[in-house]
Q: What sequence folds into this?
């Protein structure tokens, strides 16, 4: 497992940090990875952020799984993934998959669209503009915040927030067409 050096974390602060990183030039997956790396003071080179770059816009602009969710899965795998070839029954990889499945299902419900596919989540939006950008910033924060909650719980790091990361109350909608 990677080394980290924090005793307490605010997942809501991680959420906001990731949103700011996206707003200021990172893609969603990069913002999630960068926020987790810095806010948990993870002892890995910053090149780990580069590992997530290709996962943007549903993996290389393919529109598949949401890049924010991809970044969250990569961040969890950084902590709980494996580096040995111990087969499909390896408890370590199965535990990692359990945590990433938790994130996957939570995000599907929390994004108010009940989907994880970038193509579905962004249908009708003009890419990188207005409501599309606002939605992706929010999705980035949701994933980073939830990953932070999972890490706090699983690593026995004190979560200093007064409540959990909450999903969106309503979906972002594309602008009406004239």
A:
């Amino acid at each position: 497992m990677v080394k980290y050096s924090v005793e307490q974390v605010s997942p809501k602060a991680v959420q906001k940090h990731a949103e700011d990183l996206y707003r200021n030039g990172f893609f969603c997956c990069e913002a999630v990875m960068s926020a987790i790396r810095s806010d948990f003071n993870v002892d890995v080179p910053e090149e780990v952020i580069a590992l997530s770059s290709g996962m943007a816009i549903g993996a290389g602009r393919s529109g598949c799984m949401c890049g924010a969710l991809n970044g969250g899965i990569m961040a969890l795998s950084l902590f709980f993934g494996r580096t040995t070839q111990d087969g499909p029954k390896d408890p370590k990889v199965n535990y990692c998959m359990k945590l990433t499945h938790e994130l996957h299902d939570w995000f599907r419900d929390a994004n108010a669209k009940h989907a994880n596919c970038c193509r579905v989540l962004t249908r009708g939006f003009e890419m990188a503009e207005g409501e599309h950008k606002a939605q992706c910033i929010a999705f980035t924060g949701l994933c980073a915040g939830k990953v932070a909650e999972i890490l706090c719980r699983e690593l026995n790091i004190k979560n200093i927030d007064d409540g959990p990361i909450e999903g969106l109350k309503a979906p972002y909608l594309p602008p009406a067409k004239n």
